[in-house]
Write a structure and sequence with these properties.
This protein has helices at residues 9-18, 32-47, 136-146, 153-166, 177-188, 193-201, 206-217, 234-240, 250-255, 290-296, 314-328; strands at 21-25, 51-54, 87-91, 111-115, 126-129, 220-222, 227-232, 262-271, 274-283, 300-301, 305-310. With 329 residues, the protein is α/β, with parallel strands linked by helices. β1, α2 (32-47) and β2 form a beta-alpha-beta unit. α4 runs antiparallel to α5 (177-188) and α4 (153-166) packs across α6. The structure holds adenosine monophosphate (AMP) and manganese (II) ion (MN) (2 copies).
Length: 329
């Protein structure tokens, strides 16, 4: 593993051209970019005549309501028996711990790592990490051009999903002129952009609204308001009959509060890893690098959006956030 090396676009295109059998994977709790880049890449490789298997863990299914319209019927939840003979392609996954393929991916023959996280651990045999890409979908779109694969509407819909979710609907600073060019090209391919926005951001289950209400009520300000945070307990989820994925979007409300430099949503979870907290952070003005804080807590992410899982108690967790923010401001 080399922490800095990133291979070129040409090497990546060659590796995709030369491979015959592929296994495509993404990170756990797949978001719009994870799904969009995974499934679009699968269509691209199939159109080149490749044998492609895409994987999403059983724990991550069914997909949450925002993505329920995404067709994952052809995606497997069992690691294929012929894994050894497949080129494994990780999409949108900053480190192997974020994938259920941790063991299997330990010593891959050929492992392609296609991502845009600046703190990607470069775990592949080919690492194509484009830090200034808004989304992995944007990288996949560019690779489709490099592979001379024409866009079709199905691909374009998936790529648009990745693009809009990772740019916060084109609001974050990662939405560059190139991202907007991509959007233009995808819309011209015949997709209904408004319909995709409505599917992802509307049709909220009422339980999600109730969970938002609890989170907003529980809002706390720390460090003279520089840190705005909220905590959701497992009881909150139960009382609202809310799924854990219904927290999506809460931290964006917190970030918008006047005086906030970092927003954090802390949620209690009890999953296969036992009782723990999941922390989601957003930086408001970009002045504080939340991926640094996430790494201090054992996770990672982007400077403006990052997260980690922690076994610390609630007070220690808040103290950690405060100390880390004070160090940077
Ligand atoms: P979230 O707050 O869950 O939307 O996550 C924001 C970003 O933080 C994601 O896009 C990931 O890049 C990163 N992230 C979240 N959780 C983790 C984790 N446990 N380990 C590494 N990166 C993470
Ligand atoms: Mn992602
Ligand atoms: Mn992404």
């Amino acid at each position: 593993m080399n922490p800095t090396a990133t291979q070129s676009r040409e090497q990546t295109i060659n590796a995709l051209r030369q491979g015959e059998k592929f296994l495509l994977v993404t990170h756990e709790h797949p978001d719009g970019d994870a799904l969009g880049s995974l499934l679009a890449m699968s269509i691209i490789l199939r159109s080149l005549g490749k044998d492609v298997v895409s994987f999403i863990a059983a724990d991550d299914r069914p997909l949450s309501y925002e993505y329920a319209w995404v067709d994952v019927s052809g995606v497997v939840s069992e690691i294929p028996a012929d894994l050894e003979s497949r080129v494994v392609v990780f999409l949108d996954c900053g480190n192997t711990e974020r994938s259920p393929l941790v063991e299997e991916a330990a010593s891959p023959e050929q492992l392609l790592n296609i991502d845009h996280h600046h703190d990607n651990t470069r775990f592949g045999s080919v690492d194509y990490v484009v830090e200034d890409a808004s989304s992995t979908a944007e990288i996949v779109w560019d690779l489709a051009h490099g592979l001379d694969v024409p866009l079709n509407a199905e691909m374009a819909e998936l790529l648009y999903l990745g693009l809009i979710t990772d740019t916060g609907r084109f609001m974050y600073p990662n939405a560059t002129p190139k991202s907007h060019e991509m959007a233009s090209e995808l819309l011209a391919a015949g997709i209904d952009g408004n319909l995709i926005f409505r599917r992802v951001y509307e049709n909220l289950p009422e339980a999600k609204l109730r969970l938002f209400a609890r989170a907003l009520t529980a809002t706390e300000r720390h460090l003279d308001g520089r840190l705005t945070l909220s905590i959701l307990t497992t009881d909150d989820f139960q009382q609202c009959a809310a799924a854990s994925s219904f927290t999506e979007g809460i931290v964006d409300f917190l970030r918008a509060v006047d005086g906030t430099r970092v927003a954090a949503l802390i949620r209690e979870t009890s999953d296969a890893n036992g009782e723990s907290y999941r922390v989601s952070m957003r930086s408001s003005d970009g002045g504080i690098d939340v991926s640094k804080i996430a790494r201090a807590g054992g996770g990672g992410g982007h400077p403006a959006a990052a997260g980690f899982r922690s076994e610390l108690g609630r007070d220690d967790l808040v103290a950690l956030l405060c100390a880390q923010i004070s160090e940077q401001s």
